[in-house]
From TrEMBL:
<dbReference type="Pfam" id="PF13202">
    <property type="entry name" value="EF-hand_5"/>
</dbReference>
<dbReference type="InterPro" id="IPR011992">
    <property type="entry name" value="EF-hand-dom_pair"/>
</dbReference>
<dbReference type="InterPro" id="IPR002048">
    <property type="entry name" value="EF_hand_dom"/>
</dbReference>
<protein>
    <recommendedName>
        <fullName>EF-hand domain-containing protein</fullName>
    </recommendedName>
</protein>
<dbReference type="Pfam" id="PF13405">
    <property type="entry name" value="EF-hand_6"/>
</dbReference>
<feature type="domain" description="EF-hand">
    <location>
        <begin position="29"/>
        <end position="57"/>
    </location>
</feature>
<dbReference type="GO" id="GO:0005509">
    <property type="term" value="F:calcium ion binding"/>
</dbReference>
<keyword id="KW-0106">Calcium</keyword>
<dbReference type="InterPro" id="IPR018247">
    <property type="entry name" value="EF_Hand_1_Ca_BS"/>
</dbReference>
Length: 105
């Protein structure tokens, strides 16, 4: 399981936090983007695909999506619902600040 430190370090230096934050400002819209097969569920793989669209690739996408998924899956049912996405922007902002400060630990 990824820690906040691992997730922050997985963010690329040229990461567009603004673009991803703007995407997460509308949780319902982001959920529709993530739910590619329209089954009403978002998996860790769906989240990794979104991160890749914003320039987080390979192992970094896996580490970051794993951490975000753990933080967002409020009821631990293995999927993310639209209501779970409300806190995504704050989580991303905290990771970005941690990255900028050199890990924060």
């Amino acid at each position: 399981m990824s820690s906040a430190y691992d997730a922050a370090n997985a963010l690329p230096s040229n990461f567009d936090i603004g673009g991803l934050s703007n995407a997460f400002n509308n949780p319902t819209q982001v959920f529709r983007m993530l739910d590619k097969n329209n089954d009403g569920r978002v998996t860790k793989q769906d989240l990794a695909q979104l991160l890749e669209q914003f320039g987080v690739n390979g192992m970094a996408a896996k580490v970051l999506s794993s951490y975000l998924f753990k933080q967002l899956d409020a009821n631990n049912n293995g999927t993310i619902e639209p209501s779970d996405l409300i806190h995504a922007n704050g989580i991303l902002q905290n990771l970005f600040k941690m990255k900028q400060s050199g890990g924060g630990y």
